[in-house]
Amino acid sequence: MDSTETKPPFLLRLATFVRFSHTVFALPFGLIAMLSAGGGRVPVAVFGWILLCMVSARTLAMCFNRIMDWDIDKLNPRTEGRHRLVAKSQAWVVLIVSTLLAVFAAAKLNPLCLALSPLMLLILCFYSLTKRFTAYSHFYLGLALAVAPVGAWVAIRGTLLELPPLLLGGAVLCWTFGFDLIYSTLDAEFDRAHRLFSFPSKYGIPAALRLARGLHLAAVALFWAFGRAVHLGSAYDIACLLTIAALFWEHRLAKTLIPERINQAFFQINAFVSLALLAGTLVEYRVWELLWVLTDTRGI
Q: Which of 141, 139, 167 lies closest to 240, judged by CA?
């Protein structure tokens, strides 16, 4: 960068560093679980603490990932600019602050959320280490994203011993496992050359794409089963059908092995999946009516 060039503001660089736009992957499923656990009615304060916990938890996970992969990312042409966005010391500060905020928000929700917060931190951070010893690191990423809906359910209901959060968490795990397999085909050669573990680098790209298709079939089945378990209706069913169509198109793009199309499949299509399912849930719970009640001042 030219010394005379003005850097973007720190918060903008930080948002790029932690890929804040990718919050659209896990956050909608946390909101789906929250609404379903509360029957469409969630106190504003509880919603705020859940939101703070999810955003903070994702930020700390991404900062930990960037710190652990700092030197590796410098070698990869796809990621070599990441370390220039923020200083490593700044990343550590954001990691510590985000961790404290996530645990504090969990404590404000209920005792079980606080008790489970160390497990949440372990799952979120452990993923960043898995590429050093297992070709199934993509599974652990899916497990990390599955924390969002399961945690949101616990925040509302105060229990893990129910079927719906396990169905939705399982769906998110399979969906994420599948799309990360597709995305990791971009780095198969790099991983192989640098002795990093990933499914495509060990078993080949065709095998990775076959596994991704199977996982996405399982994800769709689990998304639908979750809808039945919490008695969602036709709007959610339509969202599931749109999800099937979107994932089918994602695999069509992935088969081309063209990086631009794989990037499109990774972000745009998967963002559509999460937002479509959230939209179907919002319609089912007639959330716009609740917002109208909350914002209507005519009776004041």
A: 167
